[in-house]
Amino acid sequence: MKICMVGQGAFAKKHLNGLARIDGIEVASLAGGRPETTETTAKQFGIPHWTTNLEEALAQPGIEAAIITSPTQIHADQAI
User: Fold this and answer.
1) Residue 59, SS3?
2) Listing from the earlier edge strand, what are the strands of the sheet with 63-68?
3) Cβ(75)–Cβ(14) under 8 Å?
4) Where do runs of H (alpha helix) occur along the chain?
5) Which residues neighbour 19 within 8 Å (Cβ) at sequence distance 6 or greater?
6) Would strands 2-6 and 49-51 be described as parallel, antiparallel, or unpaired?
7) Rounded to 5 degrees, what are φ and ψ at 26?
8) 80 pLDDT higher than 90
9) Is the entire prediction scored with pTM above 0.85?
10) How many CB atoms lie within 10 A of CB 3?
């Protein structure tokens, strides 16, 4: 299953560490808030695509699910 991770902070990193231990899971895209930290997190976890644009991240080929780990106050807008 190909996943898009939304958020690049501490909660995202906890999820990414867990996902790395699940066979068949590929985090194919990372949508973050700041380019510098998003790129750094993508490189750290071997995520091939990163962006600060959520629509771009979700449009990557094969994405089947998203995990929202961004700040709580923007979860609803992102989910919609």
Assistant:
1) coil
2) 49-51, 26-31, 2-6, 63-68
3) no
4) 10-19, 35-45, 54-58, 75-79
5) 3, 25, 27
6) unpaired
7) -130, 120
8) no
9) yes
10) 22
